[in-house]
Amino acid sequence: MLKGIGVIPNWQKKKVPEVVAGIKSFFSRHDVPVYVAPEKDPLLHVASPMDEIQKWPQIVDLAIVVGGDGTFLRASRELACTNLPILGINLGHKGFLAEIEIDKLSYFMEKLVNGDYRLGERMMLHTEVIRDGRHFASSISLNDVIVSRGPFSRIIRIDTYINHDFLESYPGDGVIIASPTGSTGYSLSAGGPVINPFLNVLVITPICPHLLYQRSVIVDQNDVVSLTVATKGADIFLTLDGQEGFALKYNDSIHIRRADCVTKVITFEENNFYKLLHDKLI
């Protein structure tokens, strides 16, 4: 018996109020309370409603995210250290992170109530920025960490190391460090490989490298990837999951490793990554 359900909607999407109302109605018939992140703090536009969801670990068993991949990514960072599993309902386009399409919502809600689901863990990335030899900033992300040039900047150079061993100095538009979950995002568009999201590796993919070759490098989950800004006088930015970030300076070092937190996800037997890959990309 579920003690409660948390719902994190992206209120900016048109169908969200209708979907949330349907979720509340369904679980009320099964005497399961539903707690909804407030509309006044849209998850993707204003500060996250942490005051609402910080109490969820004591009152809910799982969180349902209603929106697209962007909403799921934001929720994964907010809930990573709560140990709450996440179930995504896709109202976006590709929807690689969401387990459920909206037209099958009722079917899968029944499975939730009956306990007919599985739990999995997805690796997250921990990023630390070192500036002038000191800690400057740190954060976690589910998809990727991107160091890239600004819209009007020239080619930049990013020196890349693995466990302090020099790998390559990439001239081009930047470098992507992706988790397996993020391998189907920007890294894929930049020519990177597709990786099963339940594996534990990191993927280094250069963005439009000014080289005669372009190859991604896959490294072990315990490796630390370090990027150093090797170009002066250019607009260079660090971006996490395409949602958070800031400007970098010459000689900044960015260290990316496997995070201590994971994103727990709910999956169903009839859904699997390879079927999703076929449906979405082929």
Please outline the helices and strands:
Blueprint: E1 5-9, H1 16-28, E2 34-36, H2 50-53, H3 56-59, E3 62-67, H4 69-79, E4 86-90, E5 100-101, H5 105-113, E6 118-131, E7 134-141, E8 144-149, E9 156-162, E10 165-172, E11 174-178, H6 186-189, E12 201-207, E13 217-220, E14 225-229, E15 236-240, E16 244-248, E17 253-267, H7 273-281
Parallel strand pairs: 1-2, 1-3, 3-4, 4-5
Antiparallel strand pairs: 6-7, 6-17, 8-11, 8-15, 9-10, 9-14, 11-12, 12-13, 14-17, 15-16
Helix and strand succession? EHEHHEHEEHEEEEEEHEEEEEEH
Assign the structural class, choosing from mainly alpha, mainly beta, alpha/beta, alpha+beta, or little secondary structure: alpha+beta
Strand percent estimate: 35-45%
Number of domains: 2
CATH class of the largest domain: Mainly Beta
CATH topology of the largest domain: Tumour Suppressor Smad4
Number of helices: 7
Structure, briefly:
The chain is 19% helix and 39% strand.
What features would you describe in this structure?
The protein has 282 residues and is α+β, with helices and mostly antiparallel strands. The protein has 2 domains: 112 residues, Probable inorganic polyphosphate/atp-NAD kinase, domain 1 (Rossmann fold); 137 residues, Probable inorganic polyphosphate/atp-NAD kinase, domain 2 (Tumour Suppressor Smad4, Sandwich). It is built from 7 helices and 17 strands. It has a 6-stranded antiparallel sheet with strand order 7-6-17-14-9-10, with helices on one face. Strands 13-12-11-8-15-16 form a 6-stranded antiparallel sheet, with no helix packed on it. The longest helix is centred in the first third of the chain and has 13 residues. The radius of gyration is 20 Å and the shape is elongated.
